[in-house]
Amino acid sequence: MAIELIFPPQAMQQGFPKLLEQMNQSSLYSYEIEGIEARLEWSKMVGQGSVRFAYLRPGLQISIENHQMKEKLVMQGQHSHLDPWKFYFLVSGELSGVVDRSASPFTLKTGENCLTACSGDRAQMTYYDHQTYLAVTILVDPWFLKTFLEEQSGLPQPLQQAMKTSAERFFHTGATSPAMQIALHQILYCPYEGFLRQIYIESKALELIVLKLAQIDEQISPPKHNVTLQPQDIDCIHNAKDILLSNIESPPSLLELAKKAGTNDYKLKIGFRQLFGTTVFGYLRNQRMEQARQLLLEKQMNVSEVAQTVGYSSLSRFSTAFKNYFGITPKTYQKNS
């Protein structure tokens, strides 16, 4: 059995709060609207958790979903070129969907994202039962993006086409990069309230938009580097990655790592940029922070023990690094999680 939510035509142009009022599915959820924010709470018979919505400014909206369904949830809707572009970042869970009845289905997993523009006449998304979903959605009106552009020259060609009234659908999926993960965690665990919170969330939403557009541009545009990695080089880079992860408390120097992996430091630096989108020690920092976050969530260690486990001898340096990465101190993160 599946729960179906069918959005009316031009639904996304109205914004989340008006959409909730129009659909009025009181048997499935309750909702409340206060100022620029709205909150949907699933009824206990269909699931648990909520979806929070907010207008950040005209043309820019955000939602944060944190919920689990008891039955499969299928959402359907009709879309047009006037609808906002949908930037969707899935932090946990797995879902499937289709952007048009003539298009192939897609699957989105934990740590992946997608951009949908100019969807077809029967877009659909399916959430599965007994999975915990944590996701951030940013809706951006095309005219809002145009305010940043001169003749749309700053966008990849397919997205320039998506701006036009005669545009066909545009859909792109990708892995959520470490930089995206940082911005997402800063949104999910925003340390501010009121006016400061709104400014902070808006800045991070714009950052995610930039990172996603840059990801698309990088994948669509011709490579800008002249170094081609051979299969044996790629094997060495992955070997270096494994060595780093095995020695996360006390990692080798760059030269030592290159020697142990069977390559040189130049190819090591180029390889990490190409394969992982960051520097060698940028990758190490990302892994340390993610491991620290997981350990704090498990609550089997205190903050000092977590710091030592991920290679920080100084608690203050660890706290500073964690806050710079996630936008919240490790102590507060552990307390609130």
Plain-language structure description:
The protein has two domains: 2-220, Jelly Rolls, CATH 2.60.120; 231-336, Homeodomain-like (Arc Repressor Mutant, subunit A), CATH 1.10.10.60. The model has no long low-confidence stretch (mean pLDDT 84). It has 337 residues and is of the alpha+beta class. It is built from 13 helices and 13 strands. The radius of gyration is 22 Å and the shape is globular. The strands form two sheets. It has an eight-stranded antiparallel sheet with strand order 2-3-4-5-12-7-10-13, sandwiched between helices. The protein starts with a strand and ends with a helix.
Structural class: alpha+beta
Q: Which strand order spans the largest sheet, edge to edge or round the barrel?
A: 2-3-4-5-12-7-10-13
What is the CA-CA span between the terminal residues?
33 Å
Report the major sheet: 8 strands, antiparallel
Radius of gyration: 22 Å
Instruction: Write down the CATH topology of the largest domain.
Output: Jelly Rolls
Provide the CATH architecture of the largest domain.
Answer: Sandwich
Please tell me the overall pLDDT.
84
Under the CATH scheme, which class of the largest domain?
Answer: Mainly Beta
How many helices? The count is 13
Main features:
single chain, 337 residues, alpha+beta, Jelly Rolls, Arc Repressor Mutant, subunit A, 2 domains, 8-stranded antiparallel β-sheet, 5-stranded mixed β-sheet
